[in-house]
Design a protein that fits this description.
Length: 111
Amino acid sequence: ILVEAELREGPLLRRSRNSHASPDLEGGHVLSTLWWAAALVQSGRAEEARDVLDELARLSAPLGFLGEGLDPSSGAPAGNFPSTCAHAFAIPTLQAASRALERARRARRAA
């Protein structure tokens, strides 16, 4: 996926290559990272998506809240916190990844 090479910063994706676009979100953008994870699932890379989602969970606040952005090194939230959009998109992304991983497990057992 091309965005990985262009926008990846550690385990997260930046919102854009232009750091001046949103100075308060210099690090990873949560919604972009979730879109990336969803694209990984849809392209048959569910295990990589799981790794991205696990990293987002690790970087979330102590109660599991996600902000609009996250500092990849410290996990400190940036921008709107908590972000309703991030949580709303996280749910179907997690469900899709879980279903894809379960299908892969069943296929391995059947083989």
